[in-house]
Amino acid sequence: MRTHHTSLPASLAFVTCLLASTAFADGRELIEIRGRILLTDGFLNGTVLIVVVNETDCVPYDLSPDGHFAVSIPIDTKASIRFEKDGYMSKDVVIDTRNAMRTKEAERKNKLVKFDVELQSEPRNERMYAGPVGSITFTRGTGLMLVRYDRTVVPVPVQSVAMSNGR
To answer: Which CATH class is domain 8-164?
Structure first.
C-alpha cells in the first residue's frame, strides 16, 4: 500500500482553515459547488482542499475518499478553492457569486455548480500555474454563469524551489 504525506505548508493552511472556519448560519442563500479531484496516479491520500471566502473566512467542505467534494458558498461573496498534493502542481479556482441569483432562470441553473479538477504531476517542483486555472463568475443582469480558464505554466521561482527542498 502506498501512502503519501501532505507538505508542511499545506498542513498548516489546512489547520488554519479549520480553526478559522466560519459557519454561515446567518440565513444567506448558498450556491453548492460539487466536483471531483482526479490524479494521474489515482492515489488521493494527502490531497488537500482549502476553501477561503472573502479572503478571510474558511468554509467547511467534504472531500470523499474517491475524490468527490462538496462546498457551499454564500451568495454575494468571492471564494478561492485550492487543490493541493505533494508532487503535483496546485490549482486554484476563483468563484465570485455576485449576480448569481438575479433572475428566475439563474436561480434554477446556479443552485448547483459542478466541475472536475485534474492535478498534473510535477515531481521535481519546477513548474507551477501562473495564477488561478479557472474563474467562475455570474453575468450582471441575467445571472448566468461565465467560466474562464488560464492554464499558463511558469517556472517555480528559485527561492520557492530551495524552500520546498529544505534548503
So the answer is: mainly beta
pLDDT the model gives residue 165? 54
Specify the residue for cell string 478559522. Answer: 20
Give dist(CA 87, CA 96) in Å, integer. Answer: 29
Which residue did the predictor score with more confidence, 64 or 96? 96
Q: How many CB atoms lie within 10 A of CB 74?
A: 19
The residue written with cell numbers 495564477 in the block is 131
d(CA 16, CA 88): 22
What does the DSSP assignment read for 65-83? Answer: TTSEEEEEEETT-EEEEEE
Q: Are 155 and 113 in contact (CB under 8 A)?
A: no
DSSP assigned state of 90 = -
Q: How far apart are the first and last CA of the chain?
A: 30
Place 63 in a pLDDT band, splitting at 50, 70 and 90: confident
3-state DSSP assignment of residue 139: coil
Q: Pairing state of beta strands 30-39 and 112-119?
A: parallel
